[in-house]
Amino acid sequence: MDKKNPKILIVGPDRTLQREVESALAAIEDINPVTIYAPDFRQGIESARNRRPEMALVEMGRDNRYLRMFVEEVGAASPETAIAAVFHPSTFSEHASESEVVIEALRLGVQDFLRRPISSKDLEQFLQRTFKYAVGRQSQQGIIATFFSNKGGVGKSTLAVNVACALGKTAPGRVLLVDGSLQMGVCANLLDMTPRTSIMDAVRERDRLDETLVRELSVLHEPSGVHLLAAPADAVEASKVDDELMSRVLTLARRAFDYVVVDTFPMLDSVMMAVLDLADRRFLVTESVVPTLRGALRLLKTLDDVRIPSEGRRIVLNRYSTFDGNLRPDDVAKRIGSAVEHVVPYQKKLLVAANLGTPYIFSAGVASDFRRAIGKIVEDIQGARTGSRSSGARSTKEVNA
Ligand SMILES: Nc1ncnc2c1ncn2[C@@H]1O[C@H](COP(=O)(O)OP(=O)(O)O)[C@@H](O)[C@H]1O
Ligand SMILES: [Mg+2]
Hints:
Blueprint: E1 7-11, H1 16-26, E2 34-38, H2 41-51, E3 55-59, H3 65-77, E4 82-87, H4 89-92, H5 98-108, E5 112-115, H6 120-138, E6 143-148, H7 156-170, E7 175-180, H8 187-190, H9 199-204, H10 211-217, E8 219-221, E9 226-229, H11 235-238, H12 243-256, E10 259-264, H13 270-278, E11 281-286, H14 290-305, E12 313-320, H15 329-336, E13 342-345, H16 349-356, H17 369-386, H18 396-400
Parallel strand pairs: 1-2, 1-3, 3-4, 4-5, 6-10, 6-11, 7-9, 7-10, 11-12, 12-13
Antiparallel strand pairs: 8-9
The protein binds adenosine-5'-diphosphate and magnesium ion (MG).
């Protein structure tokens, strides 16, 4: 839920409703919403499914049959969307009293009502009610954490796998590792698994994808209690996974699991944006190597440009060692203009662990620096369950729209 940049779906046969909503929104302070317009219920359902708006404002007619279908379909495809029915008092005067219509719509599952012309005050109150309601609902959803960078070889996959396994110990069966490094997934290898299903099956089953299916497509890694949704075996096929599919998989996954850890490919494409968009914790993995840090600084700027909020973002300095002349976390922070929240030490045994397919976290000593660093990241992720949530950034598409 992004209170500053909520996505608002507007469904109505003509664009005057959109203009009305937009001018009412313009008068509300401190928000910068993204509006999505759909001329009819069918397209409205499609947009709700793909864009998962925080709220939908739906023009109500005299016949509630389509509204019923809309409420049901959106409830299934995007349950986090709050639906308000919008009506013109004059529509009903001769046919039914306003209260009858309102009661009927409430029975259908509409959460709120707005009279046209829509006033800023009414709309603002609706936004506030929605946010308040969403806080309760969101706390039941799983947390999404991702490890990302614009550079390969910095340790994204290593961290994603080890963190997922450490989380799995605290919540067996309730952690999903998604190998979003689609072009070159290594998570299965790092866990010594050869899963028969992958995210490609989600592409094939696109139309009947739900949370049960996401669970079925993932494979349990018994030693850790983590489920893995593997990357496609074939890099050409992998290009069929688009941002829409990734958003759907993650939104469904967070309903079926307490924690969803996403490994990524080092490229800021629309799939990565979809992941960043939904993640509660975004761990930018970097190293104390000047060219890598320059890249990280550029990436941070880009993220600001596309308005991925800095809240929930963490800098992880990986493969750190204190040999003379190495940049310290403080130096790194200065160079990239952002605090370094996590430092993961260099650990040469990670290489052996990778070759064996046994995550190092299993053999790391209880008091080892590596285990401690992973433990701190785990706590940071767990903190998102109770503490500050930060999901709902905007995707590039919306920014450009
Ligand atoms: N903290 C670390 N200490 C030592 N080696 C590491 C560390 N983190 C990652 N590595 C090694 O670096 C290599 C690249 O890591 P990987 O996780 O595959 O990076 P990425 O997913 O960013 O491409 C691997 O060989 C891995 O074992
Ligand atoms: Mg990787």
